[in-house]
Amino acid sequence: MSDDPRKFAELVNELRNLPNETETVEFKENNTDPEIIGKSVSALANAAALTGAEYAYLVWGISDANHDVVGTDFHYRQKRIGNEEVENWLTHNLKPSLDCSFEEGNVDNHHVVVLRIRAVAHMPIRFKETEYIRVGSYTKKLRDHPEKERRLWLLLKPEGFEEGIVQEKVKGADLKILLDYWGLLKLYGLSERFTPDAMIDQLEQRNFIVRRDLDSYDITNLCAILFARHLSEFDRLERKALRVIRYDGDNRVSTIHEQTGVKGYAVGFEGLISYLSSQLPRNEVLQQAFQREVGMYPDVALRELTANAIIHQDFSIDGAGPMIEVFDNRIEFTNPGHPLIETLRFIDSPPRSRNEKLALFMREVDICEERGSGIDKVIHAVELFQLPAPEFAVLPHSTRVTLFAPKSFAEMSRDDRVRACYQHACLQAVSGKQMTNTSLRERFSIDDRNYPMASRIIADTITAGLIKQSEPQNKSKRHMRYVPFWA
User: Fold this and answer.
1) How far is Cα 232 from Cα 325, in angstroms, rounded to an integer?
2) What b/e string do you get for 145-183 counting C-beta neighbours within 10 Å, with b at 16 or more?
3) Measured between alpha carbons, how far apart are the two ends of the chain, in Å?
4) Angle between helices 356-364 and 299-311 in degrees, nearest 10
5) Is 196 exposed, middle or buried (0-12, 13-18, 19+ CB in 10 A)?
6) pLDDT exceeds 50 at position 372
7) What pLDDT, on the 0 to 100 scale, is given for residue 264?
8) pLDDT tens-digit series, residues 134-178
9) Average pLDDT, whole number, for the chain?
10) At what angle do helices 181-188 and 196-205 cross, to 10 degrees?
């Protein structure tokens, strides 16, 4: 029974005086289905955080229709699910741990039970691997309401994903197991004689881990996502592992192989790139009487676009991580979240990332381009390989970059040619140059005699509003120069 019957009755009467069920108050009468209870608790805890309430309440013994006190047969101390009491069962199935407590008492001579649920503090509560939310008086899956999901993450993590704590009070000996020590040595360029204890000190100095006491540390999300030996050891981060999928043909009908990353992004990056390269077709070339194989796609483009998918993802989008899909005619690099800058400005804009510390470290250990996005390096490499221009697309909840396999000029569509023309103009601009008919012919390997073909592409790109003449007053076609629309 409640420690204070009078306060318990006041709480129940306050809740039932609400005109309707709310996002933080739900009445169950006699419904004690454990699955429904678990989903309701997840939804109420998340909704409390979203609405700014300190607590949410699940109440048995109150009529849902008119909020009359009708009593309930539910006695939570006697309720068992399998061999477990309901409180223990909820503890095991609600992650991360949640502060909630049952109270019971008599109101108007009827037995009433209240489950008081504290609002979540650090991340959404999930029941059996699924997060729920209240939408009005209904319990729904959080992922089906992306705007609520996004707002909830922003509220729960004002310090950002990187500073958030993924595992608390980890002993020093366990740190050496959870983190890839040898991978860290390689990243830092340290001798094998560098001790694990010295490495722990270095991680602490750089705020990858936070000391709790003499031999106990909190591991940040940034530390785990970069250095984990197994991402599955860290709650929720397993879903952020990068996946590589190889398809048979040009569509997703038949999968040849799928590989999901195991290690943290930094310690596993080189292995990931090696695996990706092994899944790509290769061309044989004859060079000075020796035949050798070369990749169909430039290595620098593969590295930069893989790093970009990792660095620029929106970690607040739950249940999704970066993905690379390999088709016969293209590679698609997809990451959760929309870009912070317009796709047309990827080449020239200063780098911006949601995850600045993650980006900084990846640049520090030479995993990606020093300037930030490295897209200009990608475009330059694509032009050297005479590939179609990459395509940058914003999808409903993600960003996708597509690298295309070789195409002849005749096989390229009008859009392919316009996209390549614009990107070439951008690359020239960031290199301190200006595009000309001659430079565009070199881009497409068009014979000098066919300069009208380049002129048509330039005219189409001007019509699309992507480039302009650098000197509109210049009427000499031979000396005409062009710049991107933003120059």
Assistant:
1) 22
2) eeebbbebbeebbeebbbebbbbeebeeebbeebbbbeb
3) 73
4) 150
5) middle
6) no
7) 96
8) 988 888 998 888 888 878 877 775 557 898 889 988 999 999 899
9) 88
10) 70
Question: Which ranges of 126-220 does DSSP label H, i.e. alpha helix?
Answer: 146-156, 172-178, 181-188, 196-205
Secondary structure class of 355 (helix, strand, coil): coil
Give the global pTM: 0.67
Exposure string of 60-74, with b = 16+ CB inside 10 Å and e = fewer, is bbbebeebebbbbeb
Sign of dihedral through CA atoms 180, 181, 184, 185? negative
Select from 41, 118, 132, 125 the least CA-distant residue to 87: 41
Alpha-helix residue ranges (DSSP H) falling in 211-311 = 221-227, 265-278, 299-311
> For residue 418, which amino acid is it?
V
Tokens linked to 348: 């020239």
Q: Quick one: CA dihedral 78, 81, 87, 88, positive or negative? A: positive
Type of residue at 381: A
User: For residues 393 and 387, is the Cβ–Cβ distance under 8 A?
Assistant: no
Other CB atoms within 10 A of residue 344 CB: 16
Neighbours of 54 (CB within 10 A): 10
- pLDDT-based confidence at residue 435 (cuts at 50, 70, 90): very high
Give the whole-angstrom CA distance, residue 29 versus residue 67: 10
Q: What share of the chain is helix, strand, coil (3-state, %, to 5)?
A: 40, 25, 35
The tens digit of pLDDT for each residue in 167-201 reads: 988 999 999 899 999 999 988 888 778 888 889 99
Euclidean distance between CA atoms 10 and 222, whole angstroms: 46
pLDDT tens digit sequence for 380-412: 999 999 999 999 999 988 999 999 999 999 999
Please name each of the domains of the chain with its CATH number: 5-156 (3.30.950), 165-232 (no CATH), 241-406 (3.30.565.60), 410-487 (1.10.10.10)
| Long-range Cβ contacts of 347-352 (<8 Å, 24+ apart) | 347/375, 347/376, 347/379, 347/423, 347/426, 347/427, 347/430, 348/376, 348/426, 348/429, 348/430, 348/484, 348/486, 349/373
Tally of CB atoms within 10 A around 293: 10
